[in-house]
Write a structure and sequence with these properties.
By secondary structure, the protein is α/β, with parallel strands linked by helices. Helix 6 packs parallel to helix 7 and helix 7 packs parallel to helix 10. The strands form two sheets. Strands 1, 2, 3, 4, 5, 6, 7, 10, 11 and 12 form a ten-stranded mixed sheet that branches. A two-stranded antiparallel ribbon has the order 8-9.
């Protein structure tokens, strides 16, 4: 029989961090996995490392992006479970044991993600993603140290591509990653499609990892990241938001886009921002072709999930222990009062999840 899990690692030109990533896999307490490394573009020095760590290697002569690399890796695997892993992430030795055990014992779950720390291991980078009513995404817990609410398992409907374990059947059912995104927010796009179909996962705090973040892309303020986020935020909206809610939340969406443009100008990335707008316009026919009609119940469920998700963002960025104050979100919420939702109204049908 083959391995139970296929770990898919796209990589490009950071062999120092890639070695650390692979070393963390070598130390896993669960050994029922294979590693499929996808060298995205030339000059990655991947063959030597793949041989050293006994990885299956897929090579591409041109850079096709994170989304395409993951899709190619999944297509080359036969395992029941797929682990998505950035090459600048390192897993705690029990990460795979915790996540695999949960999915094996809870067949209703689509995926599992865990607590991701920044380099140094004391400040959080990601404790599950959230999406606002404007379509902007946020890594919950980012920049926080003493966030006790993230010490408890909870249901989530977004599957972060940094480090997650998901069922192969779910990835296939919802079409995998959209390669038009190239990189960034392709995981949000897939998660929203899956959530519409009723799929959801769990954030499991015992599954810990460390993420260097932006090591390949040049950092959060690089021209590449600004361009990709500009383009892909709009693609997320065009593909996944019902028109009824686009009109209902038009002021929020417009305000978020104004703030994002202003941020790009302040960081001297106007050219990258405009390039992202052009990229969206080129890809918008593709996005609009992916749309399907929504039932009234689907719209109501999506609305409830996004309202609850935005509430999570609001409480997270306003937390007193957050050591990295995010100007975008502070300004986003300023003109829109965000009343605290009753617990029963958050994530209908996805209440606090007991992990057994």
């Amino acid at each position: 029989m083959g391995a139970k899990v296929s770990v898919i690692i796209p990589t490009a030109n950071r062999q120092d961090l890639l070695r650390g990533c692979l070393q963390s896999l070598r130390q896993q307490t669960c050994a029922d996995f294979e590693i499929i490394m996808v060298a995205d573009g030339p000059g990655t020095c991947a063959r030597e490392i793949a041989a050293e760590f006994t990885c299956k290697l897929l090579e591409s002569p041109v850079q096709r992006g994170f989304a395409a690399a993951i899709n190619r890796g999944v297509a080359a695997s036969k395992a029941e479970y797929i682990a998505l892993l950035n090459d600048d992430a390192q897993l705690d030795r029990d990460w795979l044991r915790h996540t695999l055990s949960l999915l094996q014992n809870r067949p209703e779950l689509a995926f599992c993600c865990g607590k991701i720390y920044k380099a140094g291991g004391t400040v959080l980078d990601n404790a599950g993603d959230a999406v606002s009513r404007a379509g902007s995404a946020w890594r919950l817990g980012h920049g926080r140290k003493a966030a006790e609410e993230f010490d408890v398992a909870r249901p989530v409907f977004t599957c972060p591509g940094t480090a997650s374990l998901l069922r192969r059947s779910v990835f296939a059912k919802y079409g995998g990653f959209d390669e038009a995104f190239f990189a960034y927010l392709e995981d949000i796009d897939l998660s929203l499609r899956a959530a519409r179909g009723g799929a959801y996962g769990v954030y499991l705090p015992q599954a810990k990892s460390t993420h260097w973040g932006g090591a390949t892309s040049g950092g959060a303020e690089s021209a590449f990241v600004i361009r990709q986020l500009t383009q892909n935020q709009l693609l997320v909206l065009a593909k996944n938001f019902p028109w009824q809610l686009c009109f209902r939340w038009a002021a929020r969406i417009a305000w978020a886009q104004i703030l994002w443009a202003a941020m790009a100008v302040r960081k001297k990335r106007l050219r990258a921002y405009l390039s992202g707008i052009c990229g969206f316009l080129r890809r918008s026919p593709h996005a609009l072709r992916q749309r399907t009609s929504w039932s009234r119940d689907e719209v109501a469920a999506f609305k409830a999930r996004l309202e609850a998700s935005e509430q999570e963002i609001y409480e997270d960025v306003c937390a007193p222990d957050c050591i990295e104050k995010d100007t975008f979100w502070k300004l986003y919420f300023a003109p829109f009062p965000t009343p605290r939702l009753r617990p029963s109204s958050m994530n209908p049908g996805l209440g606090r999840l007991p992990v057994r």
